Amino acid sequence: MSPLVARTRARAVATLTLDSPGNRNALSAALVAELAGALAAAGADDGVRAVVLTHTGTVFSAGADLRDPPDPDALVALLRQLVALPKPVVARVTGHVRAGGLGLLAACDIAAGATTSSYAFTEVRIGVAPAVISLPLLPRADPRALARYCLTGERFDAAEAARIGLLTAAGEDVDAVLAPVLAGLRRAAPRALAETKRLLTAKVLSAFDRDAAALTALTAELFASPQAREGMTAFLERRDPEWAV
Q1: 211-217 contacts at long range (C-beta below 8 A, 24 or more positions apart)
Q2: Which domains are assigned to the chain?
Q3: Helices then strands (H, E): number in the chain?
Q4: Average pLDDT over residues 224-237
Q5: Which GO terms describe its molecular function (predicted)?
Q6: Nearest Cα to 60, choosing from 139, 160, 167?
Q7: Is the pLDDT of residue 238 over 90?
Q8: Contact 8, 50 (CB under 8 A)
Q9: How do residues 92-101 score in pLDDT, each as one tens digit?
Q10: Across 42-135, where does the E strand assignment appear?
Q11: What whole-number distance in Å separates Cα of residue 87 and Cα of residue 83?
């Protein structure tokens, strides 16, 4: 099988590219495992100063793969790994992001999106909740905006994503937006970066330590529920679920 996560390195920056176009970079069990391995390798590499997480195609990530979903514990571990990695992780988004894919963005230290990208928390529309991804999301994004978008599943654009704290910045040329960010990271001392990141992520990691077990159990319960079965079936059949009015 071809790798689902491509790896490159240039001038002390490792780039991990989600490359699973067949399912719109959805978080399958295989992709989650491969991304976790790539992050571990980058974190252990003394030649890597920072990590860029990006994607091929027009979708950064469509969320959980409904045909081959990851174990909730594995997804929690991946999100925590992003937050706890001793190197800054920068998300580069030029496509659309849905549901669990937004958890990846929230777990990154810095995130930039192109103005053509769009975002939506679609969990409620298939009968589940953004439980696990709330761990990195709630400490970092605007609570009023999250209440609206998580409860309604509405789509919003990159400018709104930046306004509510899901993105650090948005622009027509995402590489131009990230150029000064990467230049700054390359000039920073490695240990200083690691210790500064530790200070900035302490509250997020506390949320993982306090709530991860309960939210993992909730995710498993909801995905096994009759409403989730109906919602996922409706999604795959491209029709409205039975509760839509």
Answers
A1: 211/135, 212/76, 212/80, 212/132, 212/135, 215/76, 215/131, 215/132, 215/134, 215/135, 216/72, 216/73, 216/76, 216/131, 216/132
A2: 1-173+190-245 (3.90.226.10)
A3: 9, 10
A4: 95
A5: catalytic activity
A6: 167
A7: yes
A8: no
A9: 999 999 999 9
A10: 50-55, 59-61, 89-93, 96-98, 110-114, 118-120
A11: 9
CA torsion through residues 122, 61, 66, 206, sign: negative
Q: Which amino acid is it at 232?
A: M
> β-pairing, 96-98 with 118-120?
parallel
Catalytic positions, written as ranges: 123
3-class SS of residue 142: coil
Give the length of the chain: 245
| C-beta atoms surrounding 195 within 10 Å | 12
Coil, helix or strand at residue 151: helix
Backbone φ and ψ for 27, nearest 5 degrees, come out as: -80, 80
Non-local CB neighbours of 148 within 8 Å, separated by 6+ positions: 154
What pTM did the predictor assign?
Answer: 0.96
Q: Extract the runs of DSSP E, i.e. beta strands, from the chain.
A: 5-10, 13-18, 50-55, 59-61, 89-93, 96-98, 110-114, 118-120, 155-157, 169-171
139-189 pLDDT, tens per residue?
Answer: 999 999 999 999 999 999 999 999 999 999 999 999 999 999 999 999 999
CB-CB neighbours of 198 under 10 Å = 12
Contact 7, 38 (CB under 8 A): yes
- At 66 the pLDDT is 87
pLDDT of residue 1: 67
Return the pLDDT at 210: 96
Amino acid found at 68: D
Average pLDDT (18-22) is 95
